[in-house]
Amino acid sequence: MTYSNMKLMKLGRKGWVAVLLAGFLSACGNKQENTSVPGGTESSAPLPTPPAVAECEPGIPGGRIVVTTFADPKTFNPITANETSSTDITLRMFFTLVIVDSPTEKARPGLAESWSVEPDNKTWTFHLRKGLRWSDGQPLTADDVVFTLNDVVYNPDIPNVTRDQFIMNGKKFMISKVDDYTFKVVTPEIYAPFVNFFGVMPIVPKHTLAKAVAEKQFLAAYGINSKPEDVVCCGPFRLKDYKQGQYVMLERNPYFWEVDKKGQRLPYADNVVFAIVPDMNAESLMFLAGKADLQERVRSEEYEHFQDEAKKGRFRVLDLGVSGDQDVIHLNENTNINEKTGKTHIEPYKLKWFRNQKFRQAVSYAIDRESIVRSACAGHGQPNYSFVTPSATNWYNPNIKTYPYDPAKAKA
């Protein structure tokens, strides 16, 4: 595994401080394990036309990567997963039409080889790579994409956090199959972040999940008690084993569709193991003891210690800059009526506060962001006045009005 290819697996998120052991960079050190392929050997698994070619420098196949996680996954279903203990795993197992590169914020081809938009800026056409396959060897086609959006994401019986992104003024996106490798999506209105949002929707297999949807059992599908071979996916890794409270082990997906510049099929690593630990203290201890190969996030108060340890040459500390994540205060302005009580969800006097612009400005003036950066972030951060951070260069407005800490103005 080369560091450049980490972006594929989302192991190095912009804004997080990533720490890597030297062995991780080449993913070597353990004996390579054989990965069986239905109907043949790994070398015989066909590549799509064309395969994606990674931008990384060629690396060394084999080895195992150990990472830590704070909790057991709740599901292996990428549509219903809603906590990082699950999504950290499903992100390695399922893939998307488009890859949004974190450092550049540019969209590049994923499952889709190419896409285009018509002059109305609402009609989009996607072309899938020919010969894509699921981890069980079955073809991945436009039917799977249509199924994912229409039958799963838009299904009122399937709670998920994706649906709201694809509804505009109460209207859904219209998706239709053109042929096995082509489909169209028409948005109700011009939707600026379409590629970045729709393009990163994880695609799920129709051939294994259509029955569960029809029988209203989708929420139980791909659950933590599922047999590994039943969790069919399309990402670089597939499920191999899960022991509650101990670990989740993934193995290389022999049908993954990306190669390096030498034509070697990716990923390089045989396995990724998510070791389940109780808290961040245990995570740091495990990494510093050499029992984990990667720590995605280093707490501000630990940063100097990790820097000192890095000088010994065992690992590197990479400061990836301002995070895309932010801490915010939510003021609930929901005016809807609770059907059970017949009253508004929010007390009327609070709702009156929250919907008052001056009140919201007073709250903002009352927050000492600079002190938060110094104390909570140990100086490794910066004040934020937007719902996005400066790392989102395509969307962040540096000229937005700010409300720096001023108790007198807040009181006024």
Give the secondary structure arrangement, pairings included.
Blueprint lengths: L5 H4 L7 E5 H5 L25 E2 L10 E6 L14 H10 L4 E3 L6 E3 L2 E6 L5 E6 L13 H12 L13 E2 L2 E2 L1 E6 L2 E5 L7 H5 L7 H9 L22 E7 L3 E6 L5 E2 L11 E6 L3 H9 L5 E2 L7 H8 L4 E5 L28 H7 L2 H9 L3 H7 L31 H5 L1
Parallel strand pairs: 2-14, 3-15
Antiparallel strand pairs: 1-16, 1-17, 4-5, 6-7, 7-11, 8-9, 10-11, 12-13, 13-15
Helix pairs in contact: 4-6
Structure description:
- The chain is α+β, with helices and mostly antiparallel strands and 412 residues long.
- Helix content is 22%, strand content 18%.
- The protein has 12 helices and 17 strands.
- It has helices at residues 6-9, 22-26, 84-93, 142-153, 194-198, 206-214, 280-288, 303-310, 348-354, 357-365, 369-375, 407-411, and strands spanning 17-21, 52-53, 64-69, 98-100, 107-109, 112-117, 123-128, 167-168, 171-172, 174-179, 182-186, 237-243, 247-252, 258-259, 271-276, 294-295, 315-319.
- The chain has a 4-stranded mixed sheet with strand order 3-15-13-12, sandwiched between helices. The protein has a 4-stranded antiparallel sheet with strand order 6-7-11-10, with helices on one face. A 3-stranded antiparallel sheet has the order 16-1-17.
- β6 and β7 (123-128) form a beta hairpin.
- The longest helix is centred in the middle third of the chain and has 12 residues, at 142-153.
- The chain is globular, with a radius of gyration of 23 Å.
